[in-house]
Amino acid sequence: MGKNYVDIENDQGETLRYRKHVNGRGLIAHGAKVHPTAIVEAGAYVEPGAQIAAGARVGRGAWIEAEAMIGPDVDIAPHAHIGPGAVIGGGARIGVRTNIGAGARVAVNSLIRDDETIADGERVATDRRGFRLAA
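User: That's the sequence. What structure does it adopt?
Assistant: Structure tokens below.
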């Protein structure tokens, strides 16, 4: 049986330890909180201080940066990037290769389509078809 963690050096030369999540084998940094019912697929990274709620799914190659908060039943598609301090409301769907900027907010049950970019600090609410709602 192999080890259940990986050590990775960051850009500042610090070594961070990531454990493999029970559901999906994605890498979870020390200090991140991931609910046991969440799925973090192999190749996904969850950085220190990030929180992932019950029933959320993080696809292969997705990157959840430090202090991001992922609500219950959120679906983050493969290769999406959730910036530091971003908040994704419960039931939201984040598309493939989508980039959510630092400190951005995505409302509950919103759909952010594939290859979209949400700017740093932007607040977004959509209907279930992905059309933006008035603020």
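The domain at 5-124 is CATH 2.160.10.10 (UDP N-Acetylglucosamine Acyltransferase; domain 1).
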